[in-house]
Write a structure and sequence with these properties.
The complex is a heterodimer of chains A (230) and B (237). Chain A is mainly α. Chain A has eleven helices and no strands. Helix content of chain A is 79%, strand content 0%. The longest helix of chain A is centred in the middle third of the chain and has 31 residues. In chain B, helix 5 packs across helix 7 and helix 7 packs antiparallel against helix 9. Chain B starts with a helix and ends in a 5-residue tail after the last helix. Classes of the chains: A mainly alpha (230), B mainly alpha (237). Chain A: It comes from Paenirhodobacter populi. Chain A: Belongs to the binding-protein-dependent transport system permease family. HisMQ subfamily.
């Protein structure tokens, strides 16, 4: 075992962790907001809005994330109006392109999770709330959303884990996160296994922390069912 | 004169149509081979995880944890660089000096097989656990030997229960093949990239790649849905 090499690799790869977390965090934040909009559009009574939302989900779930990244990073520069707009300083940067692609991608999956969670709210609970005189925002805030949140949280947890893994694709457009540094180390030293072990351990640690956090949130959300646990 | 969109996508001398279709064929071939290799790994993984012994269970757990928790692209890099180093070492030891590597298609299929196998492990395992224990006991009581029991009772129902999950895994396998572009396999994305580079039309060609991925996914999804309904027939009333 070549410990000095492994320690050196670990030091270099860990320097990419903040960037990996930034990509995942920003992508999830922006994607989450967009997902709420898409899910509301998908449930709205206005047909064109519904079509746009359905097309959004279909396109971003049906095509590879890498294609989406390339379309945004290489493709958007082809539109002259965009090149002249105030957005160009952002869309020129691989970092922002990666975040945009990750956000759009996760928004489609998250919108589906929201839709499924809202559908899983039992009709009876809503009827009971209406019978008690609740309606509108009050009904949603007190009954629909809390129940839907409990249904959706586990699935959203796996979406977060997929997102942490998906940040690795930003490496392809030169964002220097963990996978990008790993690739450069592997192709310069040809010691693929050692670098893979360290990089893999970093990703496993990150995903483990995410699943731990989700389990804690789930436990807290279901605190009123605690007496059912033995 | 610069060729228009139709010439660029057509099958003429300036058209990329034929190359794109060929690349789509490579994508489908890599996805199918990777998926079936993954089925092999998945069945093996499920057998390990369902074992009554601790050691096989731990090996199975290790396999699914690693290959579901680490980004796919890292696994592709590991096999691409690590594979050629290993093959070279074996060849050099065997008295053939020089540098050797495996074809990228083979490396890609193995990478996709390993990753999708980890997901398929869970699909097969949970499908097996849904089987009605009474049927297996009844079969055994009728005097069916183990292989007959497997063929007549266990396999058909496990497949039926696993099929919806397998359909989802197939869709991700199809999309994962795009990662093989980074090691130089001329599949849909890489071919689109080449075309985009030489015509300076990235929007058009990556857009076409996206549309082709959507079409392939939709068509295979419909076929799998049909298979699902077909397998569910004996249980419908």
């Amino acid at each position: 075992m070549d410990w000095p090499f492994l320690i050196d690799v670990a030091r270099q790869l860990l320097s990419g962790v903040p960037l990996t977390l930034q990509l995942a965090g920003s992508g999830l934040l922006a994607g989450g907001v967009l997902a709420v909009l898409v899910a509301s559009a998908a449930a709205s009574g206005i047909a064109p809005l519904r079509w746009i939302a359905l097309a959004h989900v279909e396109v971003f779930r049906g095509t590879p994330l890498l294609v989406q990244i390339f379309l945004i990073y290489y493709g958007l520069g082809q539109i002259p109006e965009l090149r002249d707009s105030f957005l160009w300083p952002f869309l020129r940067e691989p970092y922002w392109c990666a975040i945009l692609a990750l956000a759009l991608n996760t928004s489609a999956y998250t919108a589906e999770i929201i839709r499924g969670a809202l559908q899983a709210v039992p009709e009876g609970e809503v009827e009971a709330a209406r019978a008690a005189g609740m309606s509108g925002v009050l009904l949603r805030r007190r009954i629909t959303w809390p129940i839907a949140l409990r249904h959706g949280i586990a699935l959203y947890g796996s979406e977060v884990i997929l997102m942490v893994k998906a940040t690795s694709l930003a490496s392809v457009i030169t964002v220097a996160e963990v996978t990008n540094i790993s690739y450069r180390l592997i192709s310069s030293t040809y010691r693929a296994l050692e670098v893979f072990v360290v990089a893999g351990a970093i990703y496993l640690a990150l995903t483990f922390l995410v699943s731990l956090a989700v389990a804690l949130v789930e436990r807290r959300l279901n605190a009123h069912h605690a007496h059912r646990r033995t | 004169m610069t060729p228009g969109t139709f010439e660029l996508l057509g099958f003429g001398p300036q058209g990329w149509g034929f190359l794109l279709l060929k690349a789509a064929g490579t994508t489908i071939a890599a996805a199918i081979c990777g998926f079936f290799l993954g089925s092999l790994f998945g069945l093996l993984g499920a057998a390990l995880k369902l074992s009554s012994l601790l050691a096989p269970r731990m090996i199975g757990q290790f396999y699914t944890t690693i290959f579901r928790g680490v980004p796919e692209i890292l696994i592709v890099y590991l096999l691409f660089f690590g594979g050629s180093v290993a093959v070279t070492q074996v060849m050099n030891l065997g008295g053939f000096p020089g540098f050797y590597s495996l074809p990228v298609f083979v490396i890609g299929v193995i990478a996709i097989g390993l990753v999708s196998g980890a997901y398929q492990t869970e699909a097969y395992r949970s499908a097996f656990l849904r089987l009605n224990r009474g049927q297996i006991e009844a079969g055994a009581a009728c005097g069916m030997p183990r292989h007959l029991l497997l063929r007549r009772i266990i396999a058909p129902q496990t497949l039926r229960f696993a099929l919806p999950a397998l359909g989802n895994i197939w869709q991700s396998v199809l999309k994962e093949t795009s990662l093989l572009s980074v090691i130089g396999l001329t599949e849909l994305l890489r071919q689109a990239g080449t075309a985009a580079g030489s015509t300076r039309q990235p929007l058009l060609f990556y857009g076409i790649a996206a549309i082709l991925f959507l079409i392939i996914g939709r068509m295979t999804g419909a076929a799998l849905g049909g298979l699902e309904r077909h397998l569910a027939k004996p249980w419908s009333r």
